[in-house]
Amino acid sequence: MRNYCLLPILLITLFAKAQEKRLVLHKVNIVDVEKGKLLKDQTVAIAGDRITVITKANAFKPATNDSVVDCHGQYLIPGLWDMHTHVWAPDYFFSLFIGNGVTGIRGMFEQSVAAQYWQKRGNTPGDISPRGYYAGPIVDGPKPIWPGSVAVTDPARGRKVVDSLKNQAKVDFIKVYSLLERDAYFAIADEAKKQGIVFAGHVPNKVTVLEAAKAGQKTMEHLYGFLELASDSSEYYYGLINGTIKDSNFATRNARRELLRRTYSEKKLASIIKDLKQYDAWICPTMTVNRGIAFINDSAFRKDDRMVYVAPMIKNMWDPKNDFRLRTATPEYFRGEQVEYEMKKKIVRALHQGGIPLLAGTDTPNPFCFPGFSLHDELEIFTECGLSPLEALRTATLNPARYFGIEMDLGTVATGKLADLVLLEANPLENINNTRQVGAVVLKGRFLGPETVLGLWEKARKIAGN
């Protein structure tokens, strides 16, 4: 009897779903980032925030209440992810992210309360904000580099911090940082495993890449640790860093970095990559910030047309005289960074060829990392490192979905998946720079046309005061 009572309700529900107004992207070319194919002349129907139908355009029969968008000549890709960001002013940053087709971000240092709010916004239909996963505060050593970080003085403190961040601050993952002592770092790693929470971030100065991977660190940022371990003098270098070796010839950072550059071994790097494959380790190279810092004094960067979207506070920070990390840096320091940038491009190539999964991240808003815009810079640099346009595109679409374990919802354009999508005016498989040609964005099923996209850019420009 109860089954018969439920039948009318079920029929009413199905009827209502069938009558729901749909967004229809008609005659569009779908970029299949998983199989590397282009599906031409397709129609994609979206109801609510999910894709409900994908079919050949000539086989599609629109309903009377469908909202049909003619997408002839356009290319549909999954929404892009910037996997290393720092959000300061949400309306400003979010406008530039969405306006550039960045519908998802991984926040690497924010206040926990703000991050929780932004995460809710990212999952709220109609809210023009990206989906997000956030670390909250950085977990660093006894004397943290950044104000607002959590200082860890010993292993017991490290364990308490993991417990507090997971269970009270409700962060999505733990971000570890450069100045952590070895014993505290490994305690954090062990506690994170016990608590069932991911930890990621910098490979601490006193820990090797392979030690971090073995401990369970899920991502390594900025390629920290690769030049160090791939040096034929790596044991000597780590002896200097850990204080077990004293040598006045290497008392300065410049001297130690020159030692690493001089003794770098591609053969040793290949061995490291082979060992790294046995762990669930992902690399987020953030080549954009590596380039930005190396060439921070290059006047061409300050003439970039996108500077109009940069707020004065950020512009001031991009002046090395105003950056506490760089204000005393010498020309020798920057020459070294430029050499290492080119070396890191070769490391990215080797990692990719060795089967280590890469994630696209920018470290926005560090020097010349433009919110939203620089995700496209990162993809372009990846192609300079040897990735094909398809392989580069995966680092900002399919790979983030796999990293977070949300392939059922995101990462490809497929029936049943969430409708976070980007319409491009040209084929990104032919030239990765075509991801810059954003014609429209579909965010949580909501169509943001060309005027809306340009309006988001204009909103950010006005917030920036330009």
Describe this structure in words.
This protein has 466 residues and is an alpha/beta fold. It folds into 2 domains: 2-77 and 413-463, Urease, subunit C, domain 1, CATH 2.30.40; 80-404, Alpha-Beta Barrel (TIM Barrel). It contains 18 helices and 17 strands. The strands form 4 sheets. Strands 1, 2, 3, 4, 5, 15, 16 and 17 form an 8-stranded mixed sheet that branches. The chain has a 4-stranded parallel sheet with strand order 10-9-11-12. The protein has a 3-stranded parallel sheet with strand order 6-7-8, with helices on one face. Strand 7 (102-107), helix 3 (112-122) and strand 8 (131-134) form a beta-alpha-beta unit. The longest helix is centred in the C-terminal third of the chain and has 23 residues, at 331-353.
Strand content: 15-25%
Provide the CATH superfamily of the largest domain: Metal-dependent hydrolases
- End-to-end separation in angstroms reads 68 Å
Average residue-wise pLDDT: 94
The CATH class of the largest domain is identified as Alpha Beta
Multimeric organization: single chain
How many separate domains make up the residues?
Answer: 2
**What CATH architecture of the largest domain would you give?**
Alpha-Beta Barrel
Largest sheet: 8 strands, mixed
Helix content: 40-55%
Low-confidence stretches: 1-18
CATH topology of the largest domain: TIM Barrel
Overall form: globular
Note the total helix count: 18
How is the secondary structure organized here?
Blueprint: H1 2-19, E1 22-32, E2 37-47, E3 50-56, E4 67-70, E5 75-78, E6 80-85, H2 90-99, E7 102-107, H3 112-122, E8 131-134, E9 138-140, E10 150-151, H4 155-167, E11 174-176, H5 182-195, E12 199-201, H6 209-215, E13 219-221, H7 226-229, H8 234-242, H9 253-262, H10 266-276, E14 282-284, H11 287-294, H12 299-302, H13 312-317, H14 331-353, H15 373-384, H16 389-394, H17 398-404, E15 421-424, E16 438-443, E17 446-448, H18 450-463
Parallel strand pairs: 1-4, 1-5, 6-7, 7-8, 9-10, 9-11, 11-12, 13-14
Antiparallel strand pairs: 1-2, 2-3, 5-15, 15-16, 16-17
